Design the sequence.
C-alpha cells in the first residue's frame, strides 16, 4: 500500500514526492568558508543534500564579505552555511529586503559566544571565581608571569576586532585598579597556548576567549559573570568602538550565526531549504567537533564523515525519515 502525501491540493505517493523534490533541487553551490566550523557544516550539507535530496551539490571557496556580496549581486553561491551576520548586517538586511537573500535558520543555535573565562577546575574549588567580584577579590591568585605583585588578564591579540571590546571592558571593570595588567598574547596561537599551558599544569588563568573553538572543546572553561546583564546598544555603540570614552560594564551579546541562501534557491528547492532551517548545532557540540578536527588534523570533509557516522542522533532530527534512510545508506557505503 502506497503512502500518500497532500501537496498543493494534489495527492502524491511518497516516491513521487521524493522524485519531485530531487528534480526541483538540481545543481546547488555551497560556500566552503575558510574556517573549520563553516567548512565542517558545508561538507555536512553537501553530503546530505546530495545523498538525501538528490541534489548535484558542489562546494566552492568562500569568505564572509565576498560570499555575501556575490549572493546579493550575482545570485551565487546558493548557500552560505555559516554567516556571522553581525559583520555584514547591512548587506544581509538589504539582500533580504530586495528579495535576493533568504534566512534559512541558525547555524549555531546559541550564537557565537565571547567572554572572560577561567578554568572550570578553579570554579570547582572556589565557586566565587565564577563572578567578577570573586576574581577581583583573588587577584593575587592570577599571578603575572613577570611581575609577582600584579595579576594577569590575557586580552585579545592586537589588531583583532575583539581587541577593542576586551580592552574597553577591562577599563569598564576597572581591572587595572584592582591589580590586573592587560597582557597582549601576541597572536591567536599565543592566547590559546596560554590556556593550554595553564590547564596542563592546573594553574590559574583569566582572560578573553570565544566559541565555538577547539580550545573550549579541549579545555573546560567557565565564563565569568559580570553581574551586569547585556546592554546590546552600549556594546555596539561604545564597547566595540575605538573611541569609547566612558565604557560601562556589560556582558558580551551573542553573535548571530545564520545559514543564508539565495531567494531563488529557497523558492525552487523547498525541501532542501527546509532541511537547512532545521540544521543547527550548539556551541558545546561544535566545540567538541573542532577539538576532534584539531587533534586528528582533519579537514571539513573528513570531519563531516566523522560527524555523520558518530552523531546520527543529532542529524537524523534534521531530515524526514526517508531522507535519513538514504543518507544512512550512503554513510554505510563509505
Sequence:
Amino acid at each position: 500500500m502506497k503512502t500518500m502525501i497532500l501537496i498543493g491540493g494534489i495527492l502524491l505517493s511518497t516516491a513521487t514526492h521524493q522524485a519531485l523534490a530531487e528534480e526541483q533541487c538540481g545543481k546547488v553551490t555551497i560556500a566552503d568558508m575558510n574556517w573549520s566550523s563553516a567548512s565542517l557544516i558545508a561538507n555536512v550539507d553537501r553530503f546530505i543534500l546530495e545523498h538525501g535530496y538528490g541534489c548535484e551539490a558542489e562546494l566552492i571557496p568562500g569568505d564572509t564579505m565576498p560570499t555575501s556580496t556575490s549572493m546579493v549581486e550575482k545570485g551565487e553561491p546558493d548557500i552560505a552555511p555559516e554567516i556571522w551576520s553581525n559583520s555584514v548586517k547591512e548587506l544581509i538586511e538589504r539582500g533580504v529586503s530586495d528579495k535576493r537573500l533568504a534566512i534559512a535558520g541558525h547555524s549555531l543555535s546559541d550564537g557565537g559566544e565571547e567572554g572572560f573565562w577561567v578554568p572550570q577546575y578553579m570554579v570547582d574549588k572556589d565557586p566565587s571565581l565564577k563572578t567578577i567580584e570573586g576574581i577581583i577579590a583573588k587577584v593575587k591568585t592570577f599571578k603575572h608571569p613577570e611581575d609577582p605583585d600584579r595579576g594577569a588578564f590575557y586580552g585579545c591579540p592586537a589588531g583583532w576586532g575583539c581587541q577593542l571590546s576586551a580592552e574597553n571592558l577591562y577599563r569598564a571593570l576597572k581591572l587595572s585598579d584592582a591589580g590586573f595588567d592587560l597582557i597582549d598574547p601576541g597572536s591567536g596561537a599565543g592566547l590559546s597556548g596560554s590556556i593550554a599551558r595553564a590547564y596542563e599544569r592546573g594553574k590559574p588563568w583569566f582572560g578573553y576567549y570565544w566559541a565555538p573553538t577547539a580550545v573550549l572543546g579541549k579545555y573546560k572553561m567557565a565564563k565569568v559573570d559580570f553581574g551586569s546583564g547585556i546592554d546590546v546598544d552600549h556594546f555596539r555603540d561604545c564597547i566595540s568602538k575605538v573611541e569609547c570614552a566612558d565604557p560601562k560594564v556589560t556582558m558580551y551579546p551573542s553573535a548571530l550565526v545564520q545559514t543564508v541562501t539565495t531567494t531563488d534557491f529557497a523558492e525552487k528547492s523547498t525541501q532542501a531549504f527546509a532541511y537547512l532551517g532545521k540544521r543547527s548545532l550548539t556551541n558545546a557540540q561544535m566545540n567538541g567537533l573542532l577539538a576532534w578536527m584539531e587533534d586528528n588534523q582533519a579537514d571539513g570533509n573528513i570531519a563531516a564523515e566523522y560527524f555523520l557516522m558518530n552523531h546520527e542522533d543529532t542529524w537524523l532530527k534534521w531530515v524526514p525519515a526517508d531522507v535519513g534512510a538514504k543518507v544512512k545508506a550512503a554513510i554505510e557505503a563509505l
